[in-house]
Amino acid sequence: LPNSTSSFLRPGSRFTGTQQSDHQVYEVQVDLKHVDMDNSFLCGYLRIQGLTDDHPTLTTYFEGEIIGSKYVFQTKHPEWGSNEKIDMEHWGRFPAWRPLAKAAKSPNFTYKNYAQRENIFMRWKEYFLVPNHRVRTISGASFEGFYYICFNQVTGKVSGTYFHAKSEKYQQLELEHVPDHGCMGAFEFR
Question: Full-prediction pTM beyond 0.90?
Fold first, then answer.
């Protein structure tokens, strides 16, 4: 598999948009730092504005599991607090997932050729604050949960739903790719 699938899902891509709860809308920016399709993995930084008065901007490091040959639709991390019922409720919020719903309930279901499909499904798990990775909790904010993600490779749109057992249900993440006119990182040959 190629390291990245589309011009949108690659290291250096930036996405901006909002995370919306019942009461608030927060500005969000995601910067992808590493994409490894062979290992169904990506990572980057998620920045959210206005979540708390004490911390007007919070940036976290996250890692993503890409659903496909390595990861299935059922969350395999008991410490994340999800179960099959919660997984199916959250995946079911994405119209692109609904045709897969029946087959995806099987624990042995593999989402084949995921890199060539219009929609890629992922879980993004925030691990720590940047730059101070020692901070584990912040009053009024949580990064203990994770996001169910549907990424459209054609449009570059990211749709997500945040899950944490103690947080407000179904917080919606909506992001769009920030055009960079195809610019890639610089390379130096020696």
Answer: no
